Amino acid sequence: MSRVEWPGQRSSTLIFLHPSLGYGRIWEFMAEAIGDRFRIYAPDQRGHGQTDKADGDYSAQEYVEDLALFMQELKIDRAVLVGHSLAGRVAQVFAARYPQHVSALGLIAGPHLSNFYGVRDSARSVLEGAYGTINYPDEFGSKEEAYAFYATEKAVHSRSRYGALSPN
Fold it and tell me: Which of 60, 49, 90 is nearest to 81 (CA)?
């Protein structure tokens, strides 16, 4: 799992988990605003950012196991988890499964209720959105093509700066 890291007080660790369509670097502005009060990690979760887009399971439970391995590899015993959208669900499932490793949770724009109380139409909508996300282009012929694809220049700047998209 690739990651971004901002040094800070080693005794307090914060792990930012990005939403669908996200990547670790989206937390850069938040990390800079927090300063050195925490040691901050922002991993690219499975299938996002600089990770492989491998076939397989992309469930909250699998993301949780990835996070457990991430923390184990970095010898992080306890952390504050901040999850946005899908990652809010990941943080909740992680806290339920591994409460001894969670100091606190920060949940931003939690997952839509359709993720929990699915009816056929809401499940179809969620799956179609996920399918579209998986098929987003990884490369563009020019910055103009990238700007046309993504809604905001700020998002394109961040993605192009950190390699989440690259022109040919």
Answer: 90
pTM for this entry: 0.67
Asked whether residue 49 carries a pLDDT value surpassing 80, the answer given is no
Q: Is the pLDDT of residue 23 over 70?
A: yes
Q: Would you state the pLDDT for residue 36?
A: 87
Count of C-beta atoms within a 10 Å radius of residue 141: 10
Closest CA to 24 of 45, 47, 46: 45
How do residues 62-105 score in pLDDT, each as one tens digit?
889 999 999 999 999 999 999 988 888 889 999 999 999 999 99
- Please determine, for residue 166, whether its predicted confidence score (pLDDT) is greater than 50: no
Residues 8/40, Cβ–Cβ less than 8 Å: yes
Sign of CA dihedral 41, 67, 131, 88: negative
> How far apart are alpha carbons 49 and 51 in whole angstroms?
6
- Cα distances from 98 to residues 58, 91, 94, 111, 162, in angstroms, run 19, 10, 6, 20, 31
Strand order in the sheet with 102-108: 3-6, 39-43, 13-17, 79-84, 102-108
Strand partners, 13: 39
